[in-house]
């Protein structure tokens, strides 16, 4: 039986420790090829590069760096760099959680979502901590869920967003994406010449965590597995909005 083909990418860059941990953990499941941004691309969401050329550097027969975003890396891998279509795309392991509305901004999630748009099953992996980074628990969990996806697939247009807590792991929970509970913080500073600049940060209002959400799982020291869909249509709203049509129609000039 032919070995499974697995593409690994990330948004922390080709030399990130989490990327190496994910690559090594999935090697037992198939042939792994890494195509990742040459520099950190956190917070780039699903941006693609259309106003500049993309450069690819082949580091060896299984590692490629791309002068672009995670979405760029996946597109190039699927359409140019890989000799055959992969059976799975794994993105991560990100240094920092991708929970709640952060999935909208995440380059890690975007790498997996780009694969989903192209019909390839995909999983995003994140460690829900930015300090004292230890990717061992996330790396140990990755082949367990990846093997299930390889065996059973995923529904069309659906990817999995996996967040692993720091420290002890007490279980696994299937969750939904949390509503926005983070508060944006803007720090105003001055550079040495007295010119203002701003640094954006956030904090989580933990007293508003919903019990079935991704944040709740992490707070309980459980791995959060959230299915995310590429189709952003809110289907329940279609019937309601259809009632607006008479007011929205543009008069036809005779």
Short structural summary:
This protein has 254 residues and is an alpha/beta fold. The chain has 8 helices and 11 strands. α1 packs across α5 and α2 packs parallel to α4 (107-117).
Describe the structure.
The structure is a single chain. Helices cover 28% and strands 29% of the residues. With 254 residues, it is α/β, with parallel strands linked by helices. The strands form 2 sheets. Strands 3-4-2-1-5-6-7-11-8 form a 9-stranded mixed β-sheet. Helix 1 crosses helix 5 and helix 2 runs parallel beside helix 4. The longest helix is centred in the middle third of the chain and has 17 residues, at 136-152. It is globular. The relative contact order is 0.14.
Task: Record keyword descriptors for this entry.
single chain, 254 residues, alpha/beta, Stationary-phase Survival Protein Sure Homolog, Chain: A, 9-stranded mixed beta sheet, two-stranded antiparallel sheet, 8 helices, 11 strands, globular
